[in-house]
Amino acid sequence: MILNIAAYKFVTVDTPESLAAHLQGLAEAHALLGTVLVASEGLNLFLAGPDPGIEAFVDGLRADRRFADIVIKRSRSAAQPFAKLKIKVKAEIIRFRQPGTAPLAGRARALAPIELARWIAQGSDDQGRRLVLLDTRNRQEVVHGSFAGAMSLPIDRFTELPGAVLERRETLDGAAVVSFCTGGIRCEKAALWMEAEGITNVYQLDGGILAYFEQVGGYGYDGGCFVFDERVALDSELKPLASAQAAETID
Questions:
Q1: Which pLDDT band, with edges at 50, 70 and 90, does 242 fall under?
Q2: Active-site annotation holder among 33, 45, 151, 181
Q3: What single-letter DSSP state applies at residue 93?
Q4: 109-148 pLDDT per residue, tens
Q5: Domains and their CATH numbers in the chain
Q6: Is 181 a catalytic residue?
Q7: How many angstroms separate the Cα of 185 from the Cα of each of 8, 45, 170, 180?
Q8: What is the pTM of this model?
């Protein structure tokens, strides 16, 4: 079995090129495949390989004090889900093009998966506000599954989210809005952007759908979660639902 990991962290990186080169050497040394994106705002990675190689990579990454506390999400696959190793330096670890949405000075309010499950069960937040689950992923991903009753957006790229949300602004007013995505990056940026736009009672699902599956399971969720490799989508037990060519971008 192959061990797959997904992880990200927003942190100031003064020399992204240097970090990218270091991580490429570390991944190559342990025969890992996947994608690593580095930017001045942090790191985003999806890697797969044998257990010893993955754990050695994680140990090497956490040896850098900036990533000592990075949260790693793990899952399994029968075969290597990536065709090659890609290490890239980008302007953002997920393209959004909205200034001030990298949470380097502070995060939007995070909602733990177990708390979201409780809110879903009671149909509101703890103040009795109606619950809006806002899917910040694109429609290619949403077709594989989402939270039951979630608000999805007619977008193909994350950069289109602001316009789509503003068109639905009235639906969000007065609600407890919980943004969510695959692993947490997009919903974290989206929550900060919504707060800046004056939308109140906004939360991000801490760790995204993958953390929810890991900690809660499939309660309140219909279908699977699209992932950016040849497994295509994972079920609530973090097992592959299909095998096909993965998307080439995580915009």
A1: low
A2: 181
A3: S
A4: 999 999 999 999 999 999 999 999 999 999 999 999 999 9
A5: 2-89 (3.30.70.100), 110-234 (3.40.250.10)
A6: yes
A7: 7, 11, 25, 9
A8: 0.91
